[in-house]
Amino acid sequence: MPFVDSHCHIHLPPLVADTARLIQRAREQDVQHMLCVSVSLRDTPAIDAIVAAHDNVFASVGVHPDEPAPDALYDEVVQLGRRERIVAVGETGLDYYRLTGPASAQQEAFRQQIAAARALSKPLIIHTREAAEDTLRILKEEKASEVGGVMHCFTETEAVARAALELNFLISFSGIVTFKNAQALRDVAAIVPPDRLLIETDAPYLAPVPHRGQPNEPAYVPLVAQCLADIHHISPARIGEQTTANFFALFRAARPTAA
User: Fold this and answer.
1) 127 with 169: CB under 8 angstroms?
2) Is residue 258 part of a domain?
């Protein structure tokens, strides 16, 4: 059963050095599609080159909360987001872990990107770290539920997961869920219905066990799927089938390609 890597950064080092071989390794593990996620508008040329060369790679446009946002953020995201194979806005959100400036700057950039997603009628890819309360509040205030999206690389509590589900968001788990010390996260994964799950690598970061500490890549998606399959007491094939269906239902602008 084919899998989808719903969130990776194959345009970043060290993965960008050999994307063709990386995508082939993913295919060999039945990872047939992947979403290459922007963290800065400066990423656009590198992501465009990968998408142009590989019809099974989709892309997003957005600015990570740790990155500086341009003055015309809303206008630029809307303009770039209209292009073919751009299927989402993000990753955007809030990250207070290494906050060096006012939180209000992140919040304003987040609001502008939610507005852009609504203008484009495309879902959001949400990053939140040590900012769950403000993230959920802004999603509500800006009516993000109208476009929905995904809480990527989820590491929050069951309460946050339930609140996100109520806001029309899916929950995506990365290799972190396989870590030995991540039992609390596995307990959260157990309460997320399979039809609201996505799986991801967040490559080149957060490689799952047994590759922890090494560069991550989309070929490792089945390891995350196996962990979630064990949690939900279903087969990895069923997890693959369900999360693939979830991906294409959420990212409506994405079209599956032939294997």
Assistant:
1) no
2) no
Long-range contact pairs involving 104-112 (C-beta distance under 8 Å, separation at least 24): 105/69, 106/65, 107/134, 107/138, 108/69, 109/63, 109/65, 109/69, 109/73, 110/65, 110/135, 110/138, 111/138, 111/141, 111/142, 112/69, 112/73, 112/74, 112/77
Cα of 191 vs its chain's centroid, Å:
20
Q: Tell me the residue range of the domain where 191 lies.
A: 3-250
Nearest Cα to 62, choosing from 42, 77, 79?
A: 77
Helix ranges, the chain (H): 19-28, 44-53, 73-81, 103-120, 132-141, 158-166, 183-191, 221-232, 236-250
Is the residue at 117 inside a domain?
yes
Question: How many angstroms separate the first and last alpha carbons of the chain?
Answer: 11
Tens of pLDDT, residue by residue over 197-219, are 999 999 999 999 999 999 999 99
The whole-model pTM stands at: 0.96
How many domains, in total, are found in the chain?
1
DSSP state of 107: H
CATH no. for residue 90? 3.20.20.140
Place of tokens 């979830």: 246
C-alpha closest to that of 2 among 171, 245, 234 = 245
> Who's near 101: CB < 8 A, 6+ residues apart?
none
Report phi then psi at 9, rounded to 5: -125, 65
Q: What is the spatial distance between Cα 209 and Cα 174, in angstroms, rounded to a whole number?
A: 11
Quick check: 58 and 35 in contact, CB under 8 A? yes
**Per-residue model confidence as pLDDT tens digits over 248-259:** 999 999 999 876
Distance CA 151, CA 197 (A): 10
